[in-house]
């Protein structure tokens, strides 16, 4: 004869604490690691202005992609954990509170409480769709763009062409290259921000002055999109274009090659 029920509903206070559980601490740890990759890339650019260091960058890109796979697996696992927790909470909420009378009912299996163990044994990150979503991943874009912008920081990439084609005039105006200056301030980019709505890039201080915390029409010529600061994210590709451009300029100034020495 059972004196103790197989399962009992969790007490409300315990349930609340239990609900705060997460597969990983909601810290900025992953972002910190991603920032380290960016720092490593900046160092590579600073130290190699000659030939494109393909093996260094490919190795780093590979590491970065495995990190992203891991991150999306953790995300998938966390989503399943949240779902299991809310299912468990839903079932527990429908249970009779534990009293002397209900205790016997639970003991005799007339009242059923959900099994905590069963709720979580099915969790598996690998079975769910956990492919990393690279569409908004700025560093991934840098890895793709680097082989091209290494040779020419103003070169147009296929995705730039797509934006430029919508504004044919501008393509003619810029002669098919990417400007490394802000279209608002006409100064070289210091903190380029790209609009997720239209792909236009502006320097952060100039953009902030222009938008004044409001939603306005995109400052780029014929764009017409309504944008506010929340539509913009740092444009890492542009940042690396500028970095490569200035590093090359500095290096050629520091060690002028034979051709610049010739004065007639
Ligand atoms: Zn725009």
UniProtKB/TrEMBL annotation:
The keyword Hydrolase appears for this protein: no
Q: Which pathway does it serve?
A: Protein modification; protein sumoylation
Q: Does the keyword Secreted apply?
A: no
One of the protein's GO biological processes: protein sumoylation
The listed locations are: Nucleus
- Per the record, the coiled-coil ranges are 67-94
List the molecular function annotations (GO) for this entry. protein serine/threonine kinase inhibitor activity; SUMO ligase activity; ubiquitin-protein transferase activity; zinc ion binding
Going by the UniProt record, its keywords in alphabetical order are: Coiled coil, Metal-binding, Nucleus, Transferase, Ubl conjugation pathway, Zinc, Zinc-finger
Q: What is its main location?
A: nucleus
Q: Which GO terms describe its cellular component?
A: nuclear envelope; Smc5-Smc6 complex
Location of the SP-RING-type domain: 167-247
Q: Which family does it belong to?
A: Belongs to the NSE2 family.
PANTHER family on file:
E3 SUMO-PROTEIN LIGASE NSE2
Question: What name is this protein filed under?
Answer: SP-RING-type domain-containing protein
């Amino acid at each position: 004869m059972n004196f103790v029920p197989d399962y009992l509903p969790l007490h409300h206070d315990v349930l609340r604490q239990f609900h705060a559980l997460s597969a990983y601490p909601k810290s900025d740890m992953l972002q910190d690691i991603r920032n380290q990759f960016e720092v490593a890339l900046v160092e590579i650019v600073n130290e190699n202005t000659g030939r494109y260091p393909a093996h260094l960058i490919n190795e780093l890109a590979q590491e970065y992609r495995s990190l992203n796979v891991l991150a999306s697996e953790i995300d998938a696992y966390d989503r399943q954990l949240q779902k299991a927790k809310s299912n468990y909470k839903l079932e527990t909420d429908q249970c009779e509170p534990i009293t002397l009378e209900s205790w016997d009912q639970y003991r005799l299996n007339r009242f059923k409480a959900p099994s905590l163990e069963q709720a979580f044994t099915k969790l598996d990150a690998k079975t769910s769709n956990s492919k990393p979503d690279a569409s908004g991943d700025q560093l991934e874009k840098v890895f793709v763009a680097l082989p091209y912008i290494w040779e020419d920081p103003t070169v147009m990439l296929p995705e730039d062409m797509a934006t430029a084609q919508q504004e044919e005039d501008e393509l003619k105006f810029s002669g098919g290259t990417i400007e490394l200056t802000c279209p608002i301030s006409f100064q070289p980019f210091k903190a380029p921000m790209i609009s997720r709505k239209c792909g236009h890039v502006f320097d952060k201080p100039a953009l902030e002055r222009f938008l004044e915390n409001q939603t306005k029409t995109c400052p780029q010529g014929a764009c017409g999109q309504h944008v506010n600061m929340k539509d913009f994210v740092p444009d890492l590709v542009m940042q690396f274009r500028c970095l490569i451009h200035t590093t090359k300029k500095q290096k050629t100034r520091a060690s002028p090659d034979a051709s610049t020495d010739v004065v007639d």
